[in-house]
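Write out the 3D structure for:
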Amino acid sequence: MRVLAFMEKPEIIKKILQNLGLWERKARPPPRANTSPPDDHIDYSDSRVPACEDYLCSDPDHPVEASV
């Protein structure tokens, strides 16, 4: 793609958008603030990520307890 023209004059832009029916287009309303959160549930039972206890203390030279 390349730029074929660049319009700067607001009156020309307004005429083009009016001709296309896009000048007086109303913005959609903002989302409602009191909507309930989606009822999504993530099942972690088949996760391949090891539990924290399995990998935090895996280095015997530097146990986690020594850094606390």
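The helical segments are 10-19, 52-56, 64-67.
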